[in-house]
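Researcher: I need the complex structure. Ligand is iron/sulfur cluster. Inputs:
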Amino acid sequence: MHTLLHAQSFGNGERLEMDIKQNSSRGLLPGLFLITLLYFSLGFVSILFGLLAVFCMATPFILLSRYKKKVWCSTYCPRASLLMQVGAKTRTRAIGHQFYDGTLKKAMLWYFGINLLFITGSSIQVAIGNMPSMEFIRLFIVIPLVPLPQLITPEAPPALLHLSYRLYSMMLSSTILGIVLSRIYRQRIWCAICPVGTVSNALLKRQR
Ligand code: SF4
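Model: Output:
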């Protein structure tokens, strides 16, 4: 557990208690990281599996509304499990104030909001024939890569293929970022700025 996280709070006064708890693997079901690896592997079987990202994004909030606490973050998050596997087990460098003062939280929230807007808007544009589908990986919105080799040639409307690639790309980008941060700082430092965690905290706060 990172001692600095005890003493600090975000700019809006929100304590980092949940995030501190999340820096421990206690509570996370073992082996969940395999689900993350499976998700990215399935992309090579058929990119249509990329659509499972919707399930990953919705489930934390479904559990939150049912149990009134961050059950996903404390118990079921496959990404957190992966970060526990690959991240630095001891602090390797000081954690910058941007992680505490809300700067990075806001930046990530904007980034994901814009990303989701692009994904939705471009999928609609493809569906109505105003633009071609982009059937390739694109990291962090702006770095185009290649189409994934496909074990099963996907037969689906172009808009669905586009949406699948876009969601897969978003999941891949944020996972890469989380892993890089976990190597530079600590295993679950990503949880301090994760948009799902941020929105969950905001919803919980409103319920109290
Ligand atoms: S904050 Fe994000 S990455 Fe961390 S446990 Fe919650 S959903 Fe998973």
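Model: Summary of the prediction. The chain has one domain: 3-88+97-207.
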